[in-house]
UniProtKB/TrEMBL annotation:
This is DUF4258 domain-containing protein.
Amino acid sequence: MRLTKHAKTRARERGCQPLSLELIKRFGHGARTTAGAKVWLANKRERGMILEALKAVQHDFEKPDPLYFVEAPDGAVVTVGRRTKAVRRR
């Protein structure tokens, strides 16, 4: 998600993490303004869905073997796994 300079400043001032914006866009809903922009927000039910999603993935980051995925140049995810050895870089 690309943020304008103004949005970055406001997010920083308000203690908003970029992940929070992504979650609102994924689980929330948007409403069009008369100017053509879209306002994204999450109601109580949608905020509950966000919290459930965070609980569901929490275990992925608590395990000792780090989770990884491989992304192709076109953005497609090729594979997902847990790293047990060092990553080989070329």
